[in-house]
Amino acid sequence: MGRYVCGICGYVYDPAVGDPEAGVKKGTAFEKLPEDWVCPVCGASKDEFAPE
Amino acid sequence: MTSPFSAVKITDDVWWVGAIDWNIRDFHGYVTKRGSTYNAYLIMADKITLIDTVKAPFREEMLARIASVVDPGKIAYIVSNHSEMDHSGCLAEVIKAVDPEKVFASPVGAKSLKEILTVDREITGVKDAETLSLGNRSLTFMETRMLHWPDSMFTYLNEERILFSQDAFGMHYASLERFDDEVDPAILAYEAATYYANILLPYSPLVLKLLEKVTAAGLDFRIIAPDHGPIWRKDIGGIIERYGKWAAQKPSEKAVVVYGTMWHSTEKMARAISEGLSKGGLNVKLMSMSEVHRSDVMYEILGAGAIAVGSSTLNNNMLPMMADVMTYMKGLKPKNLLGAAFGSFGWSGEAVKQLEQLLAEMKVESAGGGISVRNVPDGAILARCYELGLTMADKVRSRL
C-alpha cells in the first residue's frame, strides 16, 4: 500500500497510520478511503492527492 | 485631541479600525513596495464584535481607532479569521485589555492560536456554516482551509451582506483611502495580482472550489472587507472574476525569461531567446535576478504560458540568486507552463541540468533540451537560443 501526498499542502497519507481523527483505521489503503474523505490538514479532496 | 487615529465608517454599524504600515517593504520575502495595512473591523451590534486584530507594534493605533467609536472595554466578541501574526500579533494583549465575553476562531484556528500566542483564555472553535447571533445582527462562518493557512476562515455579516475575507481579495497597499473606488484602478489591479501570485497561487484549486461553493450558495456581497489593503465596495464582481481567472491558470501568449549571469554570457543567451519568443508572437518579460525581486517574477508568471530560466555555473552549482527564485517559484506551484533552461559555464556546467531538474519537479513541460555553452556564446549558439525562443512560442500558441 502506497503513501499519497496532498498536492495542496504537502500532507502525506500513510496507510500504516490511517486518519484516526476521521475514523479511518490504520491499514486502510488510499484507494479505500471514502470518496468524501478530505485532507486532514487543508481540506483538499482525494483528487488533489498523488502517489508519493 | 487624545489620538489622531480614528475609525473609518463602512456602513452605519461597521467600522474599519485597522492600522497602516507605510514602511514595510519585506513581507517574509515578498517585497511590498507600497507598504500595507492590517485591517480590523468593528461591528456595533448588540454584541459589539471585533473582527481580527493587527500586527503587534500597531496595537495602540487599532485601540485608538476603536476608542473613537466606542470604549474598547465594551467589545463582547472577538473573531479571529486568520491566526497569522500580522492579524493576531496583539490578540493576547487586546483580550487582556478588552476582556471580551468570548473569542472565536475556526476549529484549526482555535488550536493554532494557542500555539502562536500566550493566551489565557478559551478560544471557541466555530464550524463551517455555523451562525452566531450578535443580538440585532448575525454572523455566519465559512471555513476556508489553506486560503492561505489551515486555520483560515471567512465571516459573513448576514444583515449587511459584508464578507470579512481575511487575506483573500487583499493586497499590500498602504493608504488612507479605505475603499477600492478611491484608489487608482491600475494600482489595484497590479497589487491584487501580485498578492495572489505571491500568497494564494499554490492554493488555486481550492480558490476555484470556494468560488463554486459561493456561487452555488447564492451568496451576494455588498462589501468585501479583506485583512490587507482597500475594502471592495464598487468592483466586487471584478475582483471575484479576476480570482477565477488567476486560479484557472490558463496559459496566455506571454513568456518570462529569468536569469542570473556572471560575465554577461548567460545574459546574451537570455536576450537571444527573448528575441525568438517575441518574433514567435509572444509578449516577453526579461528579468535579471541581480536587478529584480523574486516576488516581481511571480507577478509576471501569473498567467504566463512559458518560462525560460538561465544561470551561469558557479563552483558546480547554479547561481544562488537563481536557486533563490527557483525555490520560491517551486513553492508557489505555478501550473500549465512550458519551460526551458539555458546558461554559460567556465569548466563544469551543472547549472542547466539543475534548472531542468527543478522545472521537471515543478511539472513544467519541457520545450526541448536546454542550451549550455562553455564561456562566451558565439553566433551559432545565439542562433540556437533564438530558435529555442521561436519553438517555445510556437508550442505555447498551439496550446492556447
Helices and strands in order:
The complex is a heterodimer of chains A (52) and B (400).
Chain A: E1 4-6, E2 12-13, E3 49-51
Antiparallel strand pairs in A: 1-2, 1-3
Chain B: E1 8-9, E2 14-16, E3 19-21, E4 26-27, E5 30-31, E6 36-38, E7 41-43, E8 49-51, H1 59-67, E9 77-80, H2 85-88, H3 91-98, E10 102-105, H4 107-116, E11 123-125, E12 131-133, E13 138-143, E14 153-157, E15 162-164, H5 185-200, H6 204-216, E16 223-225, H7 236-248, E17 254-260, H8 265-279, E18 283-288, H9 294-301, E19 306-311, E20 313-314, E21 317-318, H10 320-332, E22 338-345, H11 351-361, E23 365-366, E24 371-374, H12 379-399
Parallel strand pairs in B: 8-9, 9-10, 10-11, 15-16, 17-18, 17-19, 19-22, 22-23, 22-24
Antiparallel strand pairs in B: 1-2, 2-7, 3-6, 4-5, 7-8, 12-13, 13-14, 14-15, 20-21
Helix pairs in contact in B: 5-7, 5-9, 6-7, 8-12
In words, what does this structure look like?
- The complex is a heterodimer of chains A (52) and B (400).
- Chain A is an all-beta fold.
- Chain A has strands spanning 4-6, 12-13, 49-51.
- Chain A is globular, with a radius of gyration of 10 Å.
- Chain B folds into two domains: 8-248, 4-Layer Sandwich (Metallo-beta-lactamase, Chain A); 254-393, Flavodoxin domain (Rossmann fold, 3-Layer(aba) Sandwich), CATH 3.40.50.
- Chain B has twelve helices and 24 strands.
- In chain B, the strands form six sheets. In chain B, strands 1-2-7-8-9-10-11 form a seven-stranded mixed β-sheet. In chain B, strands 17, 18, 19, 22, 23 and 24 form a six-stranded parallel β-sheet that branches.
- In chain B, a hairpin with a 4-residue loop joins strand 14 (153-157) and strand 15.
- In chain B, helix 5 (185-200) crosses helix 7 (236-248) and helix 8 (265-279) packs across helix 12 (379-399).
- The radius of gyration of chain B is 24 Å and the shape is elongated.
- Chain B starts with 7 loop residues before the first strand and ends with a helix.
- Classes of the chains: A mainly beta (52), B alpha/beta (400).
- Chains A and B meet through loops of A and helix 6 of B.
